């Protein structure tokens, strides 16, 4: 930079340092536990249903494809616009995931539910429905340590950050 300090380098150094810290906030044992839940269900012929909102929806879709293509597991992401708008119109946005779970999920399947804040009504209600149906549940959340989603799974992966892109990037790396 001509005639001044470089403002970009310190920003990226701080940003990548923070991401490195966040990646290490769960242990390999936590990630192995999540993988074992999916592997156990898959070995029994069950599927994995992955759901999130916004950026987390993109992560969910990508993870479902990776599970199918790279890992040979049955998986689906609930992100078809017709599916979402049909269930949201008929049952309300806060209930669409729960109602879709009731239609698509079978006991023994796995639900992977992603919410950066852990407070999204549709994801929290989806976790409740998954439990009632008999699904194994993996949750990914961030923000408040006491967010409701964080306590709703067999495996709960939590990011100690209140910055959306940091939480979402960490979830993507973990998955």
TrEMBL record:
It holds the Pfam family SIS_2. GO terms for biological process: carbohydrate derivative metabolic process. InterPro entries: GmhA/DiaA (IPR035461), SIS_dom (IPR001347), SIS_dom_sf (IPR046348), SIS_GmhA/DiaA_subfam (IPR050099). Residues 34-175 form the SIS domain. GO terms for molecular function: carbohydrate derivative binding. PANTHER family: PHOSPHOHEPTOSE ISOMERASE (PTHR30390:SF7), SEDOHEPTULOSE 7-PHOSPHATE ISOMERASE / DNAA INITIATOR-ASSOCIATING FACTOR FOR REPLICATION INITIATION (PTHR30390). This is SIS domain-containing protein. It comes from marine metagenome. The lineage of its organism: unclassified sequences, metagenomes, ecological metagenomes.
